[in-house]
Q: What sequence folds into this?
């Protein structure tokens, strides 16, 4: 599922039926696949919207070693 999430995020147009079959092969049914796609797509949308508007995170967010997200 995580490989699919990365592919849908970074190589959207290359997602194919083969990727969906791979999700089914590890036990995801159609409802679960729909949920996966909707969650990934929603987070991508919100992140692009926030970045596109230059929205900055509140100071109380601490990403530890991932503080480059808080710049």
A:
């Amino acid at each position: 599922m995580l490989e699919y999430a990365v592919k849908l995020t970074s190589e959207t147009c290359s997602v194919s039926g083969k990727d969906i079959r791979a999700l089914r092969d590890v036990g995801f049914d159609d409802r679960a696949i729909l949920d996966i796609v909707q969650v990934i797509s929603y987070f991508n949308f919100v992140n692009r919207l926030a970045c596109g508007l230059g929205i900055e995170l509140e100071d109380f967010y601490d990403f530890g070693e991932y503080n480059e997200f808080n710049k």
User: Anything to note?
Assistant: The first helix runs from residue 2 to 10. Residues 58 and 70 are 9 Å apart (CA to CA). The mean pLDDT is 88. The domain at 2-70 is CATH 1.20.1290.10 (AhpD-like).
